[in-house]
Amino acid sequence: MTAPADPTSQTDADDGVETASLDAEHGLSLLVHRGPEASLRTIWDLGRHVLGGHLRPDATVAAVRSAPIRVQAGAGLDGTVRVIQILVPSDRPVLTDLSMLVLPGRMGFGDAAADGWAAFGELPLEAMARALSDETGPVACLSQRDGESPLGSYSLFGSGRRLWASCYRPGDSYSTWDGSEFLSEPLEVGDPAPPEGDYDEFAAHGLQLLFPTALGLPPEQRLSLLPSLRQACRAGQRGAEAWMLVEDGRFVPPGQEATEDELAELTGSLWGGPDPQD
């Protein structure tokens, strides 16, 4: 990938790749979008719309937005994306048990809400991705979990609709959604990987679908893409901005910047359901 055209406002997708890594136990899930920048107020409103009324009394949530990241050489702003990470504590849940009865219906799976919620890793962040796509251009939710229950998934949204989704659990299942139909194929240990590749290549495939032409990512960048995009949201990274959304289970007024100390306590991604390692 080429150097940013404007180093004051852009960064490369492979910046910081040597120090980026996934939290194997809790996984990583990111929102990636093209089109207009999502404002602080938009992210705050989306968070309140999706999570409001479903937070535990001790919940703490922050949002980090990256600078524009160039992922397609020679395409100018058309070849850039922005990344949004919703940060939560990694040692305790932030969502109530009752939220799991409501959130599946906001995922965009239609009549297959329960099956889609279960097959796609119980990702409430995808409900935010769906809502965000009404405000920006196309949005991808890219997720990966390592460890004993590995998972790779991507979902594409546009104009408030789920357009396509795919999720791979090695040795367990491969599920897809084509905009109208949900399909799930059971897998056994040793079965070949799906067309997108192994679970740790899914993020690269999902990012590719945001663009009309191939990105041409080499294998090493495909495998490191998700932690590299996460690195662009780290405190202190060029152009990254961080705000608190929730403290003690309540939404704070929009505009409250998150300090480095506060962000250091929030190392988990917004992930629903029970921890698969428990």
Query: Which structural class fits the helix and strand makeup?
Result: alpha+beta
Gyration radius, rounded: 17 Å
Uncertain regions spanning at least 5 consecutive residues: 1-9, 14-25, 272-278
Specify the number of helices. Answer: 7
Listing every helix as H and every strand as E from the N terminus to the C terminus, the arrangement reads EEHEEEHHHEEEEEHHEEHE
How far is the N terminus from the C terminus?
Answer: 40 Å
Number of beta-strand segments: 13
Shape: globular
Helix content: 10-25%
The major beta sheet can be summarized as:
13 strands, mixed
Determine the strand fraction and express it as a percent band: 15-25%
pLDDT averaged residue by residue: 84
Helices and strands in order, then pairings?
Elements: E1 11-12, E2 28-33, H1 40-51, E3 61-65, E4 69-70, E5 80-88, H2 99-102, H3 113-119, H4 125-132, E6 139-145, E7 151-158, E8 161-169, E9 173-177, E10 182-186, H5 202-208, H6 219-231, E11 241-247, E12 250-251, H7 260-264, E13 268-269
Parallel strand pairs: 1-4
Antiparallel strand pairs: 2-5, 2-6, 3-5, 3-11, 4-5, 5-13, 6-7, 7-8, 8-9, 9-10, 11-12
Helix pairs in contact: 1-4, 5-6
